[in-house]
Amino acid sequence: xxxxxxxxxxxxxxxxxxxxxxxxxxxxxxDLELINARDLEIIxxxxxxxxxxxxxxxKKLPDVVIPRMGxxxxxxxxxxxxxxxxxxxxxxxxxNSIAQARDKLHSIxxxxxxxxxxxxxxxxxxxxxxxxxxxxxxxxxxxxTVAGSQGKGVLLCDKPSHLxxxxxxxxxxxxxxxxxxxxxxISASKGKDLRVFVIGGRAVxxxxxxxxxxxxKANFSRGGSVLNFPxxxxxxxxxxESAKALNLDIAGVDILMxxxxxxxxxxxxxxxxxxxxxxxGLNIPLxxxxxxxxxxxxxxx
Length: 301
Ligand SMILES: Nc1ncnc2c1ncn2[C@@H]1O[C@H](COP(=O)(O)OP(=O)(O)O)[C@@H](O)[C@H]1O
Ligand SMILES: [Mg+2]
Prior knowledge:
With about 300 residues, this protein is of the alpha+beta class. The chain folds into three domains: about 1-90, 3-Layer(aba) Sandwich (Rossmann fold); about 120-185, Dna Ligase, domain 1, CATH 3.30.1490.20; about 190-295, ATP-grasp fold, B domain (D-amino Acid Aminotransferase, Chain A, domain 1). About 30% of the residues lie in helices and about 25% in strands. The chain has nine helices and 15 strands. It has helices at about 15-25, 75-85, 95-100, 105-115, 130-135, 160-170, 235-245, 275-280, 285-295; strands spanning about 1-5, 30-35, 50-55, 55-60, 65, 90, 120-125, 140-145, 155, 180-185, 190-200, 200-210, 225-230, 250-255, 260-270. A five-stranded antiparallel sheet has the order 13-12-11-14-15. Helix 1 packs across helix 9. The longest helix is centred in the last third of the chain and has 14 residues, at about 285-295. The radius of gyration is 20 Å and the shape is globular. The mean pLDDT is about 95. The structure holds adenosine-5'-diphosphate and magnesium ion.
């Protein structure tokens, strides 16, 4: 099979997921390439051919595209991916689903429509009315950007005056990257969360992530430690339903542990899996390949 990993900008093979895809896919005789989504020529309506203009040359279309642009996915890259979809290439995940998942508020609205338990969340409107916020939220509360990743756009805010400081610092802006949401801090989950990996509508496994120090962000990329966590029906249902609601074939679902039960924190459309493979012993590229084979050939490996 001919498989493309679609990246945001020019990328090298050294990054963990690319290395793992390369090792596993090539061992099974598949042809794998890293393709910079920004270098795809976008011309619509598409000619229904088996090729596409890439870096000014015609290139044969692959059988499958695995986009790995993550939350950095730009307008141009998503347009490139959408064109590949128009050309009939099997993609996981699709451009619209990636755009939706990247926007934390939009995803929360969709999850909420699907009755998924969530932390109470509010769009921060400018100018900020802190009396209004105090009415709805206890402090500390979480402030996050709608499009952050790796814990970079997440902040724990202790008191109303800090919240005012944050908003004064940012000032008035029309920059969409600076749109913030306020979120109930699930204190029972402080520094810990569960990451469930969903592939093709199936929860393949889960890990417990813990922030190394006294921190409140459990991201593996921030040095958090990881442990295998046995799946249970509730966790599975939540993760699979969340991925389904956001139309994601591949999803990393972050789940907080509240006193009364689980709450979905966010859903990632191109989850890293270094920590996950370490914790669970699972082979993620192989799990993805099994799903691809099932979809394209009607049989798993
Ligand atoms: N509402 C919350 N209550 C408690 N902890 C949270 C909350 N939101 C985020 N966190 C912590 O911060 C981490 C990063 O937040 P997340 O929304 O997943 O952003 P990112 O996209 O940067 O991973 C989570 O893994 C979790 O440990
Ligand atoms: Mg996260």
